[in-house]
Amino acid sequence: MKHIRSSYKDDPLFRKILSNPTHHRSFELRDGLILFHPSASDSALCIPDSVFQGRRAREIIIDLAHTTVGHLAALRTGELIRRSYWW
Fold first, then answer.
1. Do the Cβ atoms of 60 and 71 come closer than 8 Å?
2. What are 37-79's pLDDT values in tens digits?
3. How many domains does the chain have?
């Protein structure tokens, strides 16, 4: 999470949200992390376009979701990512 927090400042969209969080009603700043709220009851962690240990952070998330859900469940993998993360 430390990498995600520090990478927001390098992403143009998330930098705007950080500079004026109250102006962006669908987003919330919590413990240095930006959450997107597509509805009142849902939230997703915002992932900046960044590289961590030589790999794109978003690529790492896709790989982890794929491993968690299983190799034969492409639709479930996509659903998990869409529910939990936003970019």
1. no
2. 988 889 999 999 999 999 999 999 999 988 887 766 777 888 8
3. 1
**Which domain, by its residues, includes 14?**
2-86
- List, as one string, the DSSP characters of the chain: -HHHHHHGGGSHHHHHHHH-GGG-TTEEEETTEEEEEEETTEEEEE--S-EETTEEHHHHHHHHHHHHH-TT-HHHHHHHHHHHEE-
Find residue 56's DSSP bridge partners: 51
The pair of three-digit structure tokens given for residue 76, joined into one six-digit string: 């479930």
| The overall pTM is greater than 0.90 | no
